[in-house]
Amino acid sequence: MNILIIGLGSIARKHIQALKLVISGARIYALRSAEAGDSVEGVENIFNLEDIPGKPAFVIISSPTYLHLESIRKCMQLEIPLMIEKPLLHELQPALDFEPELAEKNIITYVACNLRFHPAITFLKSFITEHIPKINEVNVYCGSYLPDWRPGKDFRTLYSANPEMGGGVHIDLIHEIDYVYWLWGKPHKTIGIERNKSTLQIKATDFAAYHLLYEQFTANITLNYYRRDTKRTIEIVFDNETWKADLIKCEIISNTGQVIFSNPQYRMIDTYIDQIKYFIQCIDGNRKPMNSYHEALEVLTIALQYGKTQ
């Protein structure tokens, strides 16, 4: 099976690792813009789409976010399924304008939000779907320290710190908005705020908060780049108890101390493996994947409709 990947950054390498584990004998080609680019073992660099010997089964677009639209346009001519690393794009209007053109091509698209395959989140999805519990409030928190993301590199030069490169906590950590959307659907109203007033002193948004209003409850989402003690949690306040899902520990504990769910063997790479398996199953079954371009655009709209507040 031939597979094309665009971009060879840290996330792209996770996709490549997953591909090698899932598809025996996969031939992976990386479309590069210059011969001086990095090489990855088991991946053949090419410089033109015509250099691929045979039509790829699909493309993984994992280039920097600000280059996504260019990459999508380039790959549309292949008329094969596209797996686009989140976030979809870094600007809302171009994403809205491009949707009709892509829809006309009838190309299978999936925007890769691997936390939809996190064991604690898939447990919550099954529980909520089956039991339809009474919920009064949801509180989602994701905070970590940006300078620790790429040790040895000046964090101010990373795309995350620069809005013109598609950086900003509101789209870098769009996972949180995405899985709330996946768990409970599209909210009927949203309220949001974005700021960059922390001691990091970066140009991109380093704090964002959203309130997603549903008929019976509100989901509150807080994101930041400056928390030194990393925290990634989902708190669900039910009618009779409270659950706290810790996505780092991969466990869900009730307010009484009861272990609702736990998977100590969980590895983040497993979400990439399960994601690749899912995408291939959709292609083989000619099924439309969840989180298509259209669905991801609705999530992106929540993230990008609010400008920074001074």
Topology:
Layout: E1 2-6, H1 10-22, E2 27-31, E3 43-46, E4 58-61, H2 68-76, E5 82-85, H3 92-105, E6 109-112, H4 119-131, E7 135-145, H5 169-172, H6 175-184, E8 189-195, E9 207-213, E10 218-224, E11 226-238, E12 242-246, E13 251-254, E14 259-262, H7 268-284, H8 293-304
Helix pairs in contact: 1-7, 3-8, 4-6
What does this protein look like?
- This protein has 310 residues and is of the alpha/beta class.
- The chain has two domains: 2-114, NAD(P)-binding Rossmann-like Domain (Rossmann fold), CATH 3.40.50.720; 119-263, Dihydrodipicolinate Reductase, domain 2 (2-Layer Sandwich).
- Helices cover 30% and strands 27% of the residues.
- The protein has eight helices and 14 strands.
- The strands form two sheets. The protein has an eight-stranded mixed β-sheet with strand order 8-9-10-7-11-12-13-14, with helices on one face. Strands 3-2-1-4-5-6 form a six-stranded parallel β-sheet, sandwiched between helices.
- Helix 1 crosses helix 7 and helix 3 (92-105) runs antiparallel to helix 8.
- The longest helix is centred in the last third of the chain and has 17 residues, at 268-284.
